[in-house]
TrEMBL record:
One of its GO terms (cellular component) is membrane. The chain crosses the membrane at residues 15-40, 61-79, 85-108. Residues 107-175 form the Mechanosensitive ion channel MscS domain. This is Mechanosensitive ion channel family protein. The keyword Zinc does not apply. One of its GO terms (molecular function) is mechanosensitive monoatomic ion channel activity. Keywords: Membrane, Transmembrane, Transmembrane helix. It is found in: Membrane. SUPFAM superfamilies: Sm-like ribonucleoproteins.
Amino acid sequence: MNFDLSPHHFDNIDLGALFSSDLIASLILVLALLITRMIANRVLRARADAQPHLQRRWFSTIRNVILFLLLLGLALIWAPQLRTFALSLTAVAVAVVVATKELILCILGSFMRASSRPFSVGDWIEVGAVRGEVIDHSIFMTRLQQFEPGSFHYAGRTVDIPNSAFFTTPIHNLTIGRDYIFHSFSVTVEPKFSLVAQSDCIDAVIDRHYGAYAAEARKINASLERRTGVDLLDPEVSIRFSTTDIGKYRVNIRLFCPTRIAERLENDITRDLMAEFHDLAERPQE
């Protein structure tokens, strides 16, 4: 196939007629969509009762819908003229595809995300070693408000992930832990007394701090299982005894508790258990 890219090939095209009406239609389309976006954003900002992550989700959705309508409208407006250049630009198009492979993968990753919906704005996700809350996404990238490693505390920074990464990296949706989470921690002591014999003391300390949340945690756990169709762990308090590599005693505790107070519960329970164990260690052995 031969492509005529000589200047004479384009001499027969009336550029004035080509751009006059289509350019005006394109400007009208852009102006109409900009006005629509401004009105929609103003309406959303006026809703004081909307939660921040829901507002971010709607802002992102509006922007992406406007962008899609803009691209679709421009394609329809300029379609007759684009057909005129189609054959002449085929060879150029092949080169463009090769040069913009990464951008094309990002766009395809965006379509994959939109079709399968593994997450949306406001969700907590983990992609590879990056964990955070989705605060924005576009056809090229997804922006996360990053968490501190191993926790759900905001790190005060954002990270942009190219959408092409979704083809090669698993996506873990952690939104189920937004309000409630299975929180595990352990307390290690010297082997100066029988730790297993202190089960009642450990139960009493945990119930002192966690008892007020236990009933609600069971309801939330059952509700999450019904809503998501995912089998969750038992919400009851789990207590396991083990030893370290150097022979010290360790009690491992797992709670299903509100995410916002998980670290506070860990700190309070650990403090009281350490005080109890210290008193036991100081008592004379019989």
